[in-house]
Amino acid sequence: MPVPLLAVDLRMPPDLVEVRAGDVDGDGRDELVLVSRPDRAGSPPPVTLTVVHLSPEGREEARQTLALGAQALAWDIQGGLWALDGEGVLRLHLDGRRERLASLPTPLSGLGPTSPVAADLAHDLDQDGQAEVLVWSHGALHVIGADGRRWGALAAPAEGQLSPTDRAGGTSVVAATRPPPLAVADLDGNGVADLVLPAGAQARVGWCDGRLGSRVDPVALPHDLDPPEDRDIDRKAEERRVARAWFQDLTADGRADLLIHRTVTRGSWFGTTAELVVSVGTGAAFPVTQRLQTDAAAVDVLPLDFEGDGDLDLLVPQVETSVGNLASALVSKAVRIDPVLYVMHEGRYGAPVHLEKLKVPVEDRDRMQLDVEHDLDGDGIVDLVSNGGEDRVAVHLGRPYAFATEPLASLDLPVASVGATLFVQDLTGDGRAEILAWRRHQPTATLLRLP
Question: Are 274 and 298 a contacting pair, CB within 8 Å?
């Protein structure tokens, strides 16, 4: 019999649209960050951040409100609040002050009223506890330290796009700037992350162990990560297309590896499978060490430390796209998801381990909430949080190669949280994640935790 989860009601700000978490004040503990934006027609609405500090029992200790307004602003949390506007890099303080760290033109320059957005800007590149902010300006990537010191620049030409439009009785030309894709990863294992610019079957690496831009090397990749579409391809032939790629340390040796997820089709979407290409990084290259073939389509690929041993295992939810399986789903109004685990051991992934199957409602897929990336009981192993497509939250403890079949704890959500989104994060700093059940524009959310 599962025990009830402990529940605490938290007051939410008006016009809540998003929930995030991060170390806003630099004390090493994540705070709850609530994003508010009113729904209104016409001009872009302003954005307000509400930072909530929680006690060890999950109750509110303090809150601060930071108005970002309706201006071109991208913001991020990493040991503080950082922002990018049209004039450069800012540090945002909870008392409303805006500290200019660096002045340089950005693609946001010249934009009129705009709703601010969260973006991936800040990274602790040298692992000293202080964030660095990455900003693109005039064809180069710049790294700005928390003290305003510039690390240098890495050439990174952008692409442009022009789109003529006809609206509101007039015409205009929309101009967009697209800086190149960027990955941040420690390729050589020296403890300082490097800047990786993938471009086709090669990447340019700007090493960050000295002045950025003083040492740049090409690194070959096992596959083109962004191949052009081949319109002359035989539609009946097998096709393997890159769905996503990760530059992450999979083996826990301190050096970044490369994981590529490729979808495999044979003439149609029916019978789709996946290939996971694993390349263990050497510091200067990414030779292919494994190719994992799935038996069904991969809904997602989650690199995570399932066992708590430091390296990254792969959790791959799969669904069979056969005609028979889809017909069965229409009759039962539910799709069966097969979570498959690949465990990393001594630099290689083992045979697939099939975990307990899940049922996802067909008619209302958004009702199904699932999290398998957080540890709720503090034992170092990730646990399963799910509502089963209903208004009841359950926690299944993680075990070696499996999740417990029966939940350790569960709770029916109160009426105010019916249809809620589940946000899972350690918000009290005790090494155990909590669950926040929240809804857009609702004045109250429910914080759940294990007893």
Answer: yes
110-143 pLDDT, tens digit each: 888 999 999 999 999 999 989 999 999 999 999 9
> What pTM value is reported for the model?
0.90
- Asked if residues 364 and 390 have their Cβ atoms less than 8 Å apart, the reply is no
Q: What is the 3-state secondary structure (H, E, C) of 205-246?
A: EECCCCCECCCEEEEECCCCCCCCCCCCCCCCCEEEEEEEEE
Cβ neighbours for 108, distance < 8 A, ≥ 6 positions apart: 72, 73, 74, 84, 85, 86, 114
Question: Which residues, other chains included, contact 43 with Cβ-Cβ below 8 Å and sequence gap of 6+?
Answer: 70, 113
Of 425, 419, 426, whose CA–CA distance to 441 is shortest? Answer: 419
Measured CA distances, 186 to 96, 142, 193, 254, 321 (Å): 35, 17, 4, 7, 38
b vs e for 141-168, b when ≥16 Cβ sit within 10 Å of the residue's Cβ? bbbbbbeeeebebbebeeeeeeeeeeee
